[in-house]
Amino acid sequence: MAKSILAIDDEEMILDAIKIIFEDMGYSVDTTSDPVKGTEDALAKDYDLVLTDIRMPARNGAEVVEAVLQKKPGTRILVITAYPNDPLAERAIKAGAVGLLRKPFEIAKILEFLK
Question: Which residue, 26, 82, 97, 98, could crosslink 92 as a Cys pair with Cβ 3.0–4.6 Å?
Fold first, then answer.
């Protein structure tokens, strides 16, 4: 069975790129631009990796990390952001995110977290 990824980002272009690249590599990819729905999706299904942006409307990435890991502590969440020094990024890491990638990110870095 293919490894599965959930990507949460308010930028559709980022979601489209993640979906195209990783599906071409044989991964199963779900995407959403709504962080509230993304949180629900992460809780409803077991993903090998959840990618979340930090700065989003309605719910930020740190809140996504906290909400998911509170109910599913084994979930591997990787934060992607254009602002790695953002206090929210630090909050997400402290909450249990497995790592932080700066936008624009390298696909190889994400693959390392899927191993």
Answer: 97
Q: What pTM, to 2 d.p., does this model score?
A: 0.91
Predicted pLDDT of residue 111:
77
> By residue range, what is the domain housing residue 75?
4-114
CA distance 40 to 55: 18
CATH code, domain carrying 47 = 3.40.50.2300
- Strand order through the sheet with 77-81: 28-32, 4-8, 49-53, 77-81, 99-102
Q: Rounded to an integer, what is the distance from CA 95 to the centroid of its chain?
A: 14
Tell me which residue of 42, 18, 38 sits closest to 111, measured CA to CA: 18
- CA–CA distances in Å: residue 90 to residues 15, 42, 65: 23, 21, 11
